[in-house]
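From the methods appendix. Each design record in this collection lists the tokenized structure first, followed by the designed amino acid sequence. Records were kept in a plain field format so they could be parsed without special tools. The example shown here is representative of the layout used throughout.

RECORD:
FOLD TOKENS (333 positions):
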């Protein structure tokens, strides 16, 4: 596959992206991460792409797509390319880019980088013997790894997925926030899914194809996706593409330690907007949470362009307390 990054204005010009999933309203954790991602690009004179990641058809809510655009605009975050403004790498909605993912999968098949796997989740669970992170599920035991791509023709009507062959050993990168990171993807999930036959691409393949096609060279996202990075780097290499720089920032959590969720209505940006919260005060409060200032200063994202410093963001997750929420409308923090 050709690498469109050669067309970038300058190797040092950041091309970042905001990539919401329309499965529910954006919450405060999204606001903080998107603010950091936006500033990481804009503070260095870079561009921002907005992409709608709507491949999870069973969870997509039609109204959430426009809601995401409204939430981001309310925060004061803008973009140079996206589904509402167009751009040279359109379309900017994943469900409209399926042919591109199918073409990438054919490349992986031709290079024997993937194989057809007919294992069920229950079979993988029973075969797993090693502990695994809660969000990852059991590591794939390699049951079908002896197959070649052409063996898919012999499966008939049996449902199957395409798995990527993960090589042995650690994969390391210089994270824009965390510094040197090394993860062995074989021990964290193992051979991973890139597509389901008759269903479509999985997240890992789609995001790599899109980021490469849209010339994205800087990805800032939550720390919960750090284990996706070695998988995506492997896909970049298998497809002959250049991987972007990655940065994984701490998550926002509730006082009991849970990650913020879209189902918690009180934390949604739309709820805050309807309650009359001043987005400038929210941006100022997020700046405090990122360590860029000690006092809340009502501000817009652009007010922090000269003061943005990803290294000042505290390493601990940001705890969103009821008192902090109240402070958005009822006085100082």
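DESIGN:
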């Amino acid at each position: 596959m050709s690498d469109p990054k050669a067309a970038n204005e300058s190797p040092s010009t950041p091309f970042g992206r905001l990539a919401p999933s329309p499965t529910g309203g954006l919450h405060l954790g999204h606001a903080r991460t998107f603010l950091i991602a936006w500033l990481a690009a804009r503070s260095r004179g870079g561009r921002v792409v907005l992409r709608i990641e709507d491949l999870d058809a069973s969870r997509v809510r039609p109204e959430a797509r426009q809601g995401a655009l409204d939430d981001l605009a309310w925060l004061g975050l803008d973009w140079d390319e996206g589904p509402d403004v167009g751009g040279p790498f359109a379309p900017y909605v994943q469900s409209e880019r399926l042919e591109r993912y199918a073409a990438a999968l054919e490349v992986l098949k031709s290079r024997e980088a993937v194989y057809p796997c007919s294992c069920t989740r229950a079979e993988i669970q029973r075969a797993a013997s090693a502990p695994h992170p809660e969000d990852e599920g059991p590591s794939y035991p390699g049951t079908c790894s002896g197959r070649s791509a052409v063996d898919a023709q012999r499966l008939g009507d049996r449902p199957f997925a395409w798995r990527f062959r993960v090589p042995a050993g650690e994969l390391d990168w210089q994270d824009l926030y965390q510094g040197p990171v090394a993860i062995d993807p074989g021990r964290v999930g193992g051979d991973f899914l890139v597509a389901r036959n008759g269903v479509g691409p999985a997240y890992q393949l789609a995001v790599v194809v899109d980021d490469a096609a849209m010339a994205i060279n800087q990805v800032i996202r939550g720390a919960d996706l750090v284990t996706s990075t070695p998988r995506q780097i492997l896909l970049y290499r298998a497809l002959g593409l250049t991987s972007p720089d990655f940065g994984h920032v701490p998550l926002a959590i509730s006082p009991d330690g849970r990650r913020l969720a879209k189902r918690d209505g009180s934390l949604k940006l739309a709820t805050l907007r309807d309650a009359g919260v001043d987005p400038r005060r929210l941006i100022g409060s997020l700046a405090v949470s990122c360590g860029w200032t000690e006092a809340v200063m009502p501000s817009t994202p652009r007010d922090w362009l000269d003061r943005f410093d990803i290294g000042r963001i505290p390493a601990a997750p940001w705890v969103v307390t009821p008192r902090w929420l109240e402070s958005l409308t009822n006085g100082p923090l």
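APPENDIX NOTE: Residues 113 and 165 are 6 Å apart (CA to CA).
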